[in-house]
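User: Can you recover a sequence for this backbone? Please restate the input before giving your answer.

Assistant: Of course. Working from this structure:
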């Protein structure tokens, strides 16, 4: 179901059509209707360089599960169905925009000088309707869940400011939540500016907050940079809100791992494992067998039917579809491929851009490159490489072969060491092999060439001309024996 605030335009129209109110103006709000009729806009702060990453790449472009950190945040934000998402970028702004692409729902705002989080938000505010509610997110906090954000925005109630907080056993590095005698939030103090007593507080600010755009604008105009960093802190709006008599609500994050920011490669690795375990848990709940969830990686989208089994150290990338009873052995990589019912992928195989029909066997140590299709029951064995090749029903290449740019019929046997010589140094050429053909070991098929149905090629042949159906062809040289030959002897010192 869409978030409540996404219904505002629909409900406004309905009220007008039934004779209530003015076109384009939502119905009057009661104390409990504010959240229902507000317009939500999201600000994502993504301007930092990420010095501790020790990289020329902008921090938000470092990858988590195969996607940039910022992409995770944008996808989660989009689930809230906001009117618009405003991304404040700075270091490497052009690279960030190019990497994430253009979207009609994203407004890119450049923060030329990085003068703090408060300054960053102020750069986006001119692009936001004063009547909107804004949600502030961070491009380097990719693990936060949709439900958590929904709860935060809903906590606004009839107005005010809402903060997402968390309790940590070790709050080092985070701003502390300071509460008054009545338990209300009265301030956020950054650690570098905190007293000893304030540093002992375990409740921390996650940085995520929601409130009225109009109020944010007023509060930020009061914020100064009189602090050790000389920056305009977004967290200072809490004190401004308290002084203006506005209620500051808080929502505690149930899982503190959601709010972990990524500031170093070690933290990125920790986030990767957390995210993968989260995905693994979801997949297992849906019926997928994972031999060891801690040794599983999904860097894209995986769909599967019943009774699939995935061994350890398997990596899925892009869009992968598994039929029923698919088994993937250890140390495999599968990218943008479809595997039919009953397919077995044996250890250490790589499959990319391939379409595999039912009951095929692949590997171990096979490599299927883009454009490979296997019909029902086909087999590609150890140390076989295919590229832009189609193997027909029950055809097999069991060992040590290269099959590129080839169309192979049904029940064909490709012997060990067979090569389709598809490249002449400038252009690629096709090899066509008919049904029931037998290609002997160590044969070189110099494309373009056609092998007819039922033809047999003797081992060690080099084939450069078409072969008629049903014929035996050999190009091997005559075997010779030299009676007068002696093996050379090693010279003595």
């Amino acid at each position: 179901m869409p978030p409540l605030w996404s219904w505002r335009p629909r409900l406004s129209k309905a009220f007008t059509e039934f004779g209530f109110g003015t076109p384009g103006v939502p119905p009057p709000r009661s104390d409990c209707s504010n959240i229902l009729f507000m317009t939500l806009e999201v600000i994502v702060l993504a301007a930092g360089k990420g010095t501790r990453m020790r990289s020329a790449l902008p921090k938000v472009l470092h990858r988590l599960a195969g996607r940039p950190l910022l992409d995770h945040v944008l996808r989660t934000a989009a689930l809230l169905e906001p009117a618009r998402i405003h991304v404040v970028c700075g270091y490497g702004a052009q690279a960030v925009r190019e990497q994430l692409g253009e979207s009609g729902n994203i407004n890119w705002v450049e923060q030329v000088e990085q003068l703090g989080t408060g300054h960053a938000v102020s750069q986006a505010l001119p692009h936001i309707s004063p009547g909107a509610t804004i949600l502030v997110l961070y491009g380097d906090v990719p693990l936060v869940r949709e439900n958590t954000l929904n709860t935060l925005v809903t906590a606004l109630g009839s107005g005010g400011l809402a903060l997402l907080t968390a309790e940590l056993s070790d709050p080092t590095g985070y701003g502390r939540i300071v509460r008054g005698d009545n338990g209300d939030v009265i301030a956020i103090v950054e650690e570098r500016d905190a007293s000893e007593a304030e540093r002992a507080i375990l409740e921390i600010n996650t940085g995520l907050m929601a409130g009225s755009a109009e109020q944010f604008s007023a509060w930020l105009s009061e914020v100064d940079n009189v602090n050790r960093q000389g920056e305009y802190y977004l967290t200072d709006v809490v004190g401004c809100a308290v002084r203006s008599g506005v209620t500051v609500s808080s929502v505690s994050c149930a899982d503190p791992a959601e709010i972990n920011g990524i500031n170093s490669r070690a933290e990125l690795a920790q986030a990767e494992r957390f995210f993968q375990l989260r995905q693994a848990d979801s997949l297992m709940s849906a019926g997928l067998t994972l031999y060891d969830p801690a040794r599983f990686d999904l860097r894209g989208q995986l769909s599967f039917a019943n009774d699939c089994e995935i061994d350890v150290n398997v990596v899925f990338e892009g869009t992968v579809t598994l039929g029923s009873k698919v088994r993937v052995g250890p140390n495999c990589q599968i990218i943008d491929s479809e595997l039919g019912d009953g397919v077995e992928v044996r250890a250490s195989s790589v499959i990319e851009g391939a379409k595999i029909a039912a009951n095929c066997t692949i590997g171990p140590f096979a490599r299927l490159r883009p454009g490979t299709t296997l019909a029902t029951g086909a087999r590609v064995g150890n140390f076989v490489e295919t590229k832009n090749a189609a193997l027909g029903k029950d055809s097999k290449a069991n060992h040590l072969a290269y099959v590129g740019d080839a169309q192979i019929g049904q029940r064909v046997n490709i012997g060990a060491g067979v090569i389709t010589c598809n490249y002449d140094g400038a252009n690629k050429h096709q090899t066509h092999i008919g049904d029931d053909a037998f290609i002997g070991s160590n044969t070189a098929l110099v494309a373009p060439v056609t092998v007819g149905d039922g033809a047999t090629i003797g081992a060690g042949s080099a084939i450069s001309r078409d072969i008629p159906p049903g014929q035996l062809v050999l190009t091997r040289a005559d075997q010779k024996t030299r009676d007068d030959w002696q093996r050379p002897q090693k010279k003595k010192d």
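That completes the design. Residues 7-37 have pLDDT under 50 and may be disordered.
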